[in-house]
Write a structure and sequence with these properties.
Helix content: 25-40%
CATH architecture of the largest domain: 3-Layer(aba) Sandwich
Strand order of the largest sheet: 6-7-8-3-9-10
CATH topology of the largest domain: Rossmann fold
Largest sheet: 6 strands, mixed
CATH class of the largest domain: Alpha Beta
Bound molecules: adenosine-5'-triphosphate, magnesium ion
Distance between the termini: 50 Å
Number of domains: 3
Number of strands: 20
Radius of gyration: 23 Å
CATH superfamily of the largest domain: P-loop containing nucleotide triphosphate hydrolases
Low-confidence stretches: 359-372, 499-510
């Protein structure tokens, strides 16, 4: 057996009292795609940051191709051929697509991109991902014009252009839809054939099963196991990650017809939406499915007053409402849990306690309630316990939370606000299977209390598990409605991709 391209042994890292890594191990070979799995907060990103030189380990023995090395800065990592796409993309929105693509490549060090060869490579790369980014993205397009999926693809391409020997992809697919993921996978396959060692972090087990040769599982900062993908199953991986907490069963049908309407929407039209009509019953969980980016988020944003509607009517508890801002939405008891936890959800420099309190504070002030700080704290602590949020203290800054734990804080905040309609915008994106189970229970609870829930999810399994009804969207309109037992993964996929299905709406076909 040849020496591993990458061997990281006995890796320790503590952030204050939090022991993010405790004797973690990771060994991967050239030409291998090595999955790194683990629940939220298990240390995956920390390990990746140690390897990429952005976080200094307290202790680590790292060998690259058999050579003992020290990684103490991103520069030293680059010099060793290690490059990473981190969970939070670092595309600079004041630069163009080309400038971003060439960032960190050897020829752009002077700050100006002169080298024609490099520019040609950037243009080539853009063509390679053309089908994924869409026809509108050109080399001189300002990055500020790009959506999250497009930004992520540019980020990945940028790193690929540096031809790393060890490529780390930390939840690089989280903001991509299926078609974009396929194109990314082709690129990964290509660099794997060229002998690159790829470390691949994803909460999407199907991706891991499809792409990886081996998987290392982390739990609480420790390496639990390294397994061959060919010799394992998704169920076994889940067990390794979280014990038996991950099983997902379909909720029982609850008879959809006799509920009074909580919310109804007629012919809602906007820049992104085309005549969307539906109603939401009391205690109903209504799913939004389809390929990502077909207007699902826009629908939620419009209901929440964050995006403008051009036409259409929103009726809440029998009365027409005009939701012109998120504040107005909050006043009407409409809550939104955004999917992009870092840019929309959290005030990351503020303490966790404040993040929890902001929404509920608002409502209570409006209701002219006296807000007792102590009560806030108690409610906050109860919620932290209920959602199993891993953190040092409520007074820690929210920026130190792991991705999934940060998302739980956003959810907790809205639950403290006692909403009457909850809009969930892909709330468990990047959340581990165990934590997902917690969320599912909360969503079930909300429905049981009569709250109307609209759930946009990029995971079909989640829609199957949770929803009474699912609206499948395509290009801003509702293409199909699936009810009760019709909600299966197969039906969701075929409705989204229109395989052997006819379009139920009057919208145009792809
Ligand atoms: N800058 C930081 N300051 C304090 N604590 C941190 C910091 N970064 C991470 N942590 C903590 O270290 C632990 C590991 O976090 P890490 O981000 O590595 O987890 P992860 O496995 O990537 O999780 P996720 O799946 O949610 O992305 C968590 O408990 C997290 O709260
Ligand atoms: Mg992470």
């Amino acid at each position: 057996m040849t020496l591993p391209a990458l061997s990281a042994l006995h890796v320790d890292k503590a952030y204050g009292a939090v022991r993010a890594l405790q004797d973690a191990h990771l060994e991967a070979h050239a030409g291998e795609v090595h999955g790194l799995l683990g629940p939220n907060g298990s240390g995956k990103s920390t390990l990746n940051k140690v390897l990429a030189g952005t976080v200094r380990a307290d202790k680590a023995t790292i060998h690259i191709e058999g050579q003992l090395v020290r990684i103490d800065s991103p520069t030293s990592a680059h010099r060793l051929g290690i490059d990473a796409v981190h969970q939070q993309p670092s595309v600079l929105t004041n630069l163009t697509v080309e400038q971003n693509l060439l960032l960190g490549s050897e020829f752009s060090r002077a700050g100006m991109v002169r080298d024609h060869q490099m520019r040609a490579r950037a243009a080539d790369m853009l063509e390679r991902i053309r089908d994924a980014v869409g026809p509108e993205v050109e080399v001189d397009t300002p990055a500020s014009n790009l959506g999250p999926g497009q930004l992520q693809l540019i980020e990945i391409s940028k790193v690929l252009l540096r031809s790393p020997k060890i490529l780390i992809l930390d939840e690089a697919t989280a903001s991509l839809h299926r078609g974009q993921v396929e194109i990314l996978f082709e690129l990964v396959e290509e660099v794997r054939r060229e002998g690159t060692c790829v470390v691949f972090v994803s909460h999407r087990l199907d991706e891991v099963m499809q792409l990886c040769d081996r998987v290392t599982v982390l739990r609480s900062g420790k390496t639990v196991a390294t397994v061959e993908v060919a010799e394992t199953t998704p169920e076994q991986l889940v067990t390794l990650m979280v014990g038996d907490k991950g099983a997902v069963a379909r909720r029982p049908d609850r008879g959809a017809d006799d509920r009074p309407d909580k919310l109804s929407v007629h012919d809602l039209t906007s820049e992104k939406l085309r005549r969307v009509s539906f109603s939401l019953g009391e205690g109903e969980v209504l799913g939004l499915g389809g390929l990502q980016g077909q207007g699902q988020s826009d629908l939620l944003m419009t209901l929440f007053g964050q995006e403008r509607k051009a036409a259409g009517e929103i009726i809440l508890d029998g009365a027409t409402v005009h939701v012109r801002s998120p504040h107005a939405a909050a006043r009407h008891g409409i809550a939104l849990v955004p999917g992009d936890r870092t840019t929309q959800g959290l005030f990351s420099t503020r303490p966790v306690l404040q993040n929890l309190s902001i929404a509920s504070l608002w409502r209570r002030l409006l209701a002219r309630f006296f807000v007792s700080i102590r009560r806030e704290r108690t409610a906050g602590e109860t919620m932290i316990e209920r959602l199993d949020i891993v953190l040092g203290s409520l007074d820690d800054s929210a920026s130190g939370l792991s991705g999934g734990n940060a998302q739980k804080v956003v959810v907790a905040r809205w639950l403290l606000n006692e909403p009457s309609v909850v809009l969930l915008d892909d709330p468990t994106k990047g959340v581990d299977v165990g934590a997902k189970g917690d969320f599912y229970e909360i969503i079930d609870d909300l429905a049981r209390q009569g709250v109307g829930v609209v759930l946009n999810s990029s995971e079909d399994r989640e829609l199957v598990r949770l929803c009474d009804r699912v609206l499948v969207m395509y290009e801003g309109h509702i293409r199909r409605e699936l009810l009760g037992a019709e909600i299966t993964e197969e039906n969701l996929v075929s409705a989204a991709l229109l395989v052997g299905e006819s379009d139920q709406s009057e919208g145009r076909l792809p």
